[in-house]
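Open question from group meeting: does this chain pack into something compact, or does most of it stay loose? Before anyone orders reagents, we agreed to write out a predicted structure and look at it together. Recording both the input and the output here so the notebook holds the full record.
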Amino acid sequence: MEIKRAIAIVAMVSLLPLLPRQARADDVADEADHLFMLGAERYQDKDYKAALQHFLASNRLVRNRNVMFNIARTYEHLRQFPDAYRYFQRSLEGETDPAIKQRIKESLQRIGPSIALLEVKTDPPGALIYLNRKDLGDRGAAPQTLALTPGTYTVIAELPGYDEATSPPTEVKVGTEKTISLKLTRVVGMVRVSGADGAAVRVDAEDSPVLCTAPCDAPAPPGQRTLILTKEGFRTGRLTVQVKANTITPLKAALEAETGSLVVNADERDAVIEIDGRTRGFTPSVLEVPVGVHDVRVTLRGFRPVEKRVEMRANAQTQLDLQLVSTDAVEAASRVAESVEDAPASVTLIPSPELRAMRYPTVAEALRGVRGVFVSDDRGYKSVGFRGFGRPGDYGNRVLVLVDGHPTNDNWVWSSYVGYDLRTDLDDVDRIEVVRGPGSILYGTGAFSGVVNLVTSGRDTPDGREVGLSVVEDGVARARAKITHHFAKDFGVWTSVAAGRSAGRDFFVPEYVPSGPPTIAGNARGVDGMHVGTWTGKAFYKALTAQWSLNHHDKQIPGGQFETLFGDGRTHQADTRAFLELKLAPELGEQLESLTRAHANHFAYRGLFARAPIEGGVGKDSYDGTWVGVEQRIAYKPVPEVRLTGGGEVQGHLQAHQRSSDETNGRYFDDERTFTLVAGYLTADYAPTPALRANAGARFDSYSTFGSSLNPRAAIVLKPYEQGNLKIMGGKAFRAPSLYELYNVSGGGRKATEDLEPENLYSAEIEMSHRFSRSVVASVATYANYIENLIALRDLPDATPQVPSYAYQNTGVPVGTFGGEIELRREWKEGWMIAASYSFQKSKYLRSSSFSDFIGFKQAPNLRDVPNQPEHMGSLKGGVPILGRALLLMNRLTVEGPRPDRNDQAGLPEQRRTPPAVLWDIVFSGGEPRWGLTYAIGVYNAFDARWAVPISSEFRQTTMPQLGRSFLATGALAF
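Structure tokens returned:
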């Protein structure tokens, strides 16, 4: 017995060299050795409880695998098999000696059938394991297999940074093994990242996994964290945030883009620079632009947009040098966009730079100086005439005025409106297209001697707001506001409101001196006022466009028109014109185009006329007209050289109500009716080579009021050499008899004439142009017009001096016109332009309708000169930048020859002519685009020329003085 005991002691002591040398180097190691020796002695004495006590104490002082092996053997002798299993496992951890490892494994196998095993796994691993209660201490870190006595256990797993996990109660039995897996939920807070859209969000390290893409909620452990945001083309952002457990912490992030410098130069200053659809500046500019590919668009009113795609690199410079080309596209000549040179008509454009430089107050004023065009103003209405024909009192009903292709003439007299009766100002107009010659093939009635098309702001107008004030002409004070907004690239709207008023001017009319009261003595003072208001706009969505306009104009009539009391301020007339037009132009491919157009229109007229009691007292005339229409147009290109266009139009004039009354007779005229129009047209365009283009077509109109009219047109456009352009054109136009001419019997002795036929105009023209450079062109044109079935007010056979009797009739006397025009023009370029033109036109009443009398230009007997035709007209326009382009000086000099008055028949008083007129207009304009400020000051008719124009027989006098010297001042602010 003593021998065995000695052997055991020697065996245990032999394990001591395995203890770390450093542990024996201090007192703790000595104590551990001593306790181990005591345990070994008690073990040999089979005092296992005392031995266990000494072994555990030694292991607490110096942790050692061999001591743990002895603890396990001691537990085994005490038959505490779960504890023995646990210490055998611990002694196996890190053991490298194969013999010892084998011995430990044999021990585990030996006691395995005597215990219950419970394998505990956690996700993530490394959690401390507790059984039933945490105050009993942990059982180590998972994953681990626990040796237990039979029973039911609850496993608790704990890991820093994670919520505690608890298993359901699990029963284990001797000789069996069960597995419990616990998923630990990480303790996190949520960081709600806003801004920095598209950035990848990481926490604490750039190489850590991406948590989410901003804007998003990023989970992060509690505590102070660094959120790292990365996005291509932007500098990496690092933001510190204090994260609280189970709490959402908001974080506003913004990344600074990596940029390069974009230098944009253009040969025109102050062009708008847009990058990716957003306005960034004006030319010339140096802009910091984020790296990557961007779309650059440069626009300037009156010039074609330029679009470029650029790729920006970090800290590098990219330069764009652009040349802007003046807009020469015209739509009114063919109802499709085409260059002026290709258009099958004689065309003049009044571009945006000229409109802004001269600050034209009205369309009529803008047309003065255009070759072949002359203007008149009887102080009731402004009107325009083309190429030697514009009868006094015709209210411009032989000229068609369009707004973006929509006719604005009324349906009562077919009047065109070119003054404040059309719109308060021209600030929404980008350009004015003037088409000389017949245009009925495109528009039907009204497009008789010319077409004027106002092209307003388009889809590419930059977003913004604008307010402005102005004073023009005879003290017309105006205010306006405009807003433009794009909801998306192909979805936007612009709209504007404007209003104005004026006290007018005073007039002296000598014809009223003998008959008027001494207090008047031919003077009309304070009776020329007016007020005007306009609401207009345009909206678009993809292929759909809507435009609208509402204009109200109320004007006093100072000239004694319609036998009213001269100088009586009660006499006035008001016109209200409104329309809504919808256009649908879907993309159907390269060969097929479609345009569907629907419109609704309203026109109202109210006139109050102060007459003497013996002549009925105060009279009132009124008219209300409402009409709707639908048009469908299809264009087909079977081959690239051929374009065929066909379409049809239906108009229903739902209301046409004329009324007249006075104080003496009450309502003495009331006529209400409806009428319809049906039209169809077909044109063909053939361009086999760039040097040749042929265009031909016809339109058929059928009216329920008078019948039908067929109007053809043909044109050949040749380019005989590279810089030359030759147009040979011919066509026919008509003007339908108006309701006023057909049915109105409001005047004393006036009769209705329901069998009127339409007026017809036949025209032939040759125009040659030569382009000296891209911006300098000279043009020469000659033309001949023949008008038949002219409608005029004439006495009826039963008329007597005592009993008047008259009506509108087709006179049966044709009118012939021959003329020529020449123009030299340098288009707007680099801030300046110059243009000079001369027009000659001569119209005559012809002796007969024979061709020989037309060619021979034979004058009709008993008829004098065609009234209101200036045979000679000339203009000189020029604009030049001064003060480094901060200020622009614009001049317009117009010269006009005499015009015959209305006394064109034998038996009437002598036909006189107005004096020639020389008018000089000067305007200084400028602005600071970066501030959104524009301004202008100027003077019209600087010479204060005393000039007049012929007026109709509705007046006692034969001429009306025109505006003398007047001043303008305008200012606008865009933001």
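Observations to bring back to the group:
Residues 1-25 have pLDDT under 50 and may be disordered.
The first strand starts at residue 116 and ends at 123.
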